[in-house]
Every structure is written in C-alpha cells, then in structure tokens.
Amino acid sequence: MSNSPVVNHPHYEDSGANFSIEAVVLGRNDDYEPNWRKNLFASIAYNRRLFEGSRVDFRVAFVEWNPPAERPLLSPELVERFPFLRALVIDRSVHQQLSQSAQLTMMLNFAYNPALRTSQADFVLITSGDLFYGRGLADRIVGDGLRGGCLYRAERVNVRPTLDFSRSGSEEIEASQNVVAVDSCSSPPYDQPPFTNACGDFIMMDRVSMLGIRGFDESIRFARAHLDSRCCTTALQAGMECELLGQIFHVDHAASMSNLGSAYPMSNYDFNLDLPYLNPPNWGLADARWADAGERTVSIGPELTYSMPGLARMLGFARTSPDFARRAYPAPDIREANAVTQKLIELKERTTPSRPTQRTSSALRLFWPTRLSIPGYWSATQKRTHGRVQLTSAPDPWAYSATLSIPRFGPQEKWYWVKLRLRIAKGQFGVSLLAKDTLLHEQLISAGEPTDVYLPLDDFEAPVVLFRNASPDGASVCELMEHRIVYQRRTDYRALLMPERVDMMASR
C-alpha cells in the first residue's frame, strides 16, 4: 500500500531526559548450569549498579516459567532482594498445554511475551540471567540516550565460568585473559543488521514498537532456537533501524547453544520461513488466568472456561490481576503500536505463506512433467506407472532433470501453492519454482518416506516447477505421487489490529 502509517517514536538522545529500561529475564530453579542461581542474583545486582545515579531507571521483570514441583520458587527471594524487580510465575500446566516437544522445559516465546506485554518502561530488553553488560555499553546508553524505532543489539563475549561474579567488577569480568570466545558481530554473515549472532541475549527496543511487533513468534511451539533471530528480522521488516551498542559478557556454560551444537533443544526447521510473523491480539498469555501472588508478583495459569460465567463470578472464580496488568493501554500507545503492526500486515499481504494453514481445496491438476532432454548435463529419464511419474536424473550434481508446467491460476483473493507429494527412492532432489531464470523456494528432499512439498505461487510470470539432482554421488531417483494446485482464502490480517481500547492483560 502506498500510504504507510507514520510512527512517532519517542527520543531520548542527547536531551538529558530521564527514561526507563525493563530487562526481561527468564529462569526456573532447575540447576540449569553450575552456580546459575548465584550468578542470576549477581547479574541482576551488577547490571542495576551500572545505571545507578544516572538518568536511566533500570528495572527487571523476572519470569519463572514451568517451575519444578519439587523445588521452591526463585521469585519470592528475588522480589524481596530487589525492590526494582517484578515477577511473573507461569504455571507448569501452561507449559504442558503449549509445548509440542518433550525436549523443552523453557518456552522462550511464551515466557518473554507476558512480561513484554505488561511492561510500563520506555524501553524493553530481552536478555538472560547469566549476563553482565559491558561498561562501555552502559556508558553509551546513559550518555547518548536511546531513540524509538530502533532495534538495539550487543555483541556477546563468553567469559570463564570460574569467576566469582558476585565479587567481580568490570575490570575482571571484561579482562582479555578471562575471555573464552566471542560470538562475533563483525564477521560474515553476522556483520550486517540485525546482527543475529547470539542475538537472544540482548534485544532492546522502545516498548510501543515491541507492542506492535508483539514479542516473540508464538506459532513456534516445538523449538526454542532462532526465535530471537526471527524477532530481529521482523523488527527490521517493520521499518526499524538497527544499532550495535557494544558488548555484553556471558558466563560460558556447557548448556549453551554454541557449545551443544546439534544437541541443543531445537527442531530442524527453516526459521526464515513466513517472516514477518504476526501474533494474534491475545499474544502474551492475555487470555490466561492472572492472579495476585504477593508483592510485585503475579501467577499465570491456564484459561478457565465456564458454561455459566455469571455464576463463576458470583462464586469468586473469575480471573483477577494486579493493577499493573489490569491497566488499559493509553490511546496514543495503541495508535503507535498499530502503525508498527500495519507495516507488517502490508508485507504479509504481499507474500504467500510457505504452506496452507487452513483446509485447502484442489484447484487445477498440473500437466505431466516435461523431461529435459538436452544432451549430457540436462538429460534425465522418465517413466509413468499407475498415474505416478518416476524421474531418474542425470548423474551430474545439480543436473536439471524435468519441469512441470503450471496453468494460470485464479483470482487474487486466494493464495495458491503447487503441492507435490514425493518419495525419493535414491539420492536427493532439489525442487523449486523457476521464474525468469531465477530459482525460488527451493527445497531439498532426501531419500525416505513420502514428503509433501508446497511451493508458494506468488505473482510470478510463467513459473514452472523444476526438478534437479542434489546428490554428489550420481543420479537420483524420484517418484512423483501427486501434483496439483491448492488454495485457501487470504487471511484478513487487518482484523488483528488492536481496538481503540485494549487491556494490557486481556484482549477481550
């Protein structure tokens, strides 16, 4: 659309004005790493001291997710120790309802988002409990200030876990002899905004922009990896600037993703698909059951439903919440957040999702594959049996094997995909769209069980499906079991904008 909304972001650069930052920290009493509890307390105290006596009001929201039944909560002691800290305790049953992986004990998206949604600070910071902000980074925030509409990032430096962080100052923590490794933001491919290397340990932006982006992507319920990079990429797609502030110092530990590699709790998914994401208006567990749980503490449980809600209220079973969660957003905040969301909506309206999300109908059956018979590199054989096609590629790596013509598809109030059901009997095939000599949406399919492949049909001119050999070890064999075009009606993303008045906790 031509008339993009204008976002009037706050600015605290070089003006001397006071502003607040709320850091959101996750945790549970599960001995995640050696000395984790001790380092958590040390990290909160250390980072607060960096801003004491300055124009920056530094606060903390601690989210205790899925607390172990046999261990005491961390939140009461943290609230008692730190008067600038609030706590959100999210019940184990919420985790059990949401998680789609037995490997997960912490769901970063659903843990961070309730705190982000209810923050009242000027800026919100997604961070961790085993981090110590660099002295230079803190001085730059205090001296130069921050501006709205900007994603702030930091480079992570991993330091020896044997330090006594409860007694260490910046000279010792930042000393070169204590550095184990640096997750560089100055070498490819991480040297360009949004500097996604280890980005989950420092993602900061103004609160209203975060309301517009709606926190981490809540459609991912099977993995915790790459949620941070999806957030950063979405922020840039919403039109935000990006700035690298300096360094943060992270306690090196065996359970980190950089050390565990493929053993890290994650699923092998393409984290660049379907960006930007767009959470529903009730993101951040807004429809869950919020209740007071002590000083500056709320508990969040599963949503309660009743066939007789009036009777439930009479019996005292209605949901309750503390004042900071019950308070409605100011109207200017809603307008500014909606302007950010609107930019994401405009982008999503122009882009076909990677696969259907609703029940689809069959449109047009595609033509049979055309064997590419250029001698040598482009040669392949084709055999049809009982309505199926078997393709055998040329032996050369990336040898083009066959194309599948796509008939013209229908009106633009629908999204369209080519759906292929394949079984790779040998080797590996690359399957993609080819439009104007450009490969689009290629997927690599290896030998194994039948696989469904969806190729989004954006507004390309005369695209075809292209099959090519992806094996370095000779020819590949592919059985094409089904090929058709499917569609669904386009989503009305504008219905996801916040109404003029909305509660911080509940969207209804």
Question: What would a concise description of this structure say?
Answer:
The chain is α+β, with helices and mostly antiparallel strands and 508 residues long. The protein is built from twelve helices and 22 strands. Helix content is 20%, strand content 30%.
Your description of this structure?
With 508 residues, this protein is an alpha+beta fold. Strands 1, 2, 3, 4, 5, 6, 7, 8, 9, 10 and 11 form an eleven-stranded mixed β-sheet that branches. The protein has twelve helices and 22 strands. Helix 7 packs across helix 12 (331-349). A hairpin with a 2-residue loop joins strand 14 and strand 15. It has two domains: 1-351, Spore Coat Polysaccharide Biosynthesis Protein SpsA, Chain A (Alpha-Beta Complex); 361-489, Jelly Rolls (Sandwich), CATH 2.60.120. Helix content is 20%, strand content 30%.
CATH class of the largest domain: Alpha Beta
Determine the number of helices (DSSP H or I, runs of at least 4 residues): 12
Q: Which word captures the global form?
A: globular
Number of strands: 22
Mean pLDDT across the residues is 86
| Alpha carbon gyration radius | 26 Å
Which fold name fills CATH's third level, the topology of the largest domain?
Answer: Spore Coat Polysaccharide Biosynthesis Protein SpsA, Chain A
What percent of residues are in strands? 25-35%
Domains (count): 2
- CATH-level-4 superfamily name of the largest domain: Spore Coat Polysaccharide Biosynthesis Protein SpsA, Chain A
Classification by helices and strands: alpha+beta
Distance between the termini: 29 Å
Approximate helicity band? 10-25%
Largest sheet: 11 strands, mixed
Assembly category? single chain
* Poorly predicted spans: 305-325, 373-377
